[in-house]
Specification:
Layout lengths: L2 H26 L10 H19 L1 H9 L2 H6 L7 H9 L5 H24 L5 H31 L14 H26 L6
Helix pairs in contact: 1-3, 2-3, 2-8, 5-6, 6-7, 7-8
């Protein structure tokens, strides 16, 4: 890794750690408990927009996400094994079926395929490119479905989704899900660049 890339990585990691701490504080201090729908969804997509703005404005962030091994971006989605926790909460009656079971299994499937991609998918060539493309599309559709389902259920019955307002699940809308959506977008950008370059490197 070059010195410039190392500096970019350190800056990105420092920013992520600070963001993570702030998200924990927001949940721990009860700030997220006051986020009635659709305010939580506005915060979530606002954070996605902020990440995209930082991508265009910050050379460090842009340089890092466009040069880091694409499997590291895919590895972010291993966090979607949180779907098992959704299933556990559903079994205790703390989350509704449509969100916990449908969304939970969707996340588990996406995370499982992500693990296979990390272990087996090639980093060059059209076949590898196609594997990443299909997985990335399915993963983005899944996470948008989960977000939309959560918003609809919370609007109809705020108490049904109250688990998302406190720790640890408050970290989903205030930290993890914006990063997941952002990495999906970046992977699409990386794949488009690889296609133009003849699939030499993903």
């Amino acid at each position: 890794m070059s010195r410039v890339n190392s500096i970019s990585q350190n800056r990105v990691l420092a920013a992520i750690i600070i963001w993570y701490v702030l998200a924990i504080l927001a949940g721990g201090l009860g700030l997220t408990l006051r986020m009635a729908p659709p305010f939580l969804q506005i915060v979530l997509f606002g954070l996605v927009v902020l990440l995209l703005l930082l991508y265009w404005l910050s050379q460090s962030l842009r340089q890092w996400v466009l040069s880091v091994n694409i499997k590291l971006l895919v590895a972010v989605h291993l966090t979607r094994f949180v779907g098992f926790y959704f299933l556990f909460l559903y079994s205790r009656g703390q989350l509704p079926y449509e969100f916990a079971v449908l969304g939970g299994w969707g996340d588990i499937i996406v995370a499982s395929i992500a693990l296979l991609i990390i272990l087996l998918a090639p980093l060059a060539g059209k076949s590898g490119w196609l594997i990443y493309l299909v997985w990335n599309f399915i993963g983005l559709v899944d996470i948008l479905f989960v977000v939309a389902t959560a918003a609809r259920l919370a609007t109809a019955d705020p108490k049904s989704m109250s688990e998302l307002l406190g720790l640890p699940l408050s970290l989903l809308p205030t930290f993890l899900v914006p990063i997941i959506i952002f990495t999906h977008i970046i992977i699409f950008i990386r794949l488009n660049t690889a296609r133009r370059d003849g699939y030499i490197k993903l």
